[in-house]
Amino acid sequence: VQLQASGGGSVQTGGSLRLSCTASRNVLSDGAMRWYRQTPAKQREFVATLTSGGSTNYADSVNGRFTISRDNARNTIYLQMSSLKPEDTAVYYCNAFYGSRLYWGQGTQVTVSS
What we know:
The chain is mainly β. The protein is built from no helices and eleven strands. The protein has strands at about 5, 10, 15-25, 30-40, 45-50, 55-60, 65-70, 75-80, 90-100, 100-105, 110-114. The strands form two sheets. Strands 2, 4, 5, 6, 9, 10 and 11 form a seven-stranded mixed β-sheet that branches. Strand 5 and strand 6 form a beta hairpin.
């Protein structure tokens, strides 16, 4: 499974961005996909998950501001990020758990300026 993440950029505090992660196959037919983020000072941290059954879960730090969703026809998940804060600045990665294996995409940089 190959994953392609996109949509990062630079915004000001309070702004919004939408990240996309497209898989080379329909992972969500029988798996789960997640978003993580990482800064140079921190370990990679969980952001949000979406299961094949449609369940979602969010890190406390983003709950209520970020929304994970999917487009099955495009094998794509999205991360809609709103009310962005400088502490959301990070490289964002998507991953997919499928066929008992974990796959990672390349990161996309999100920078939030105050």
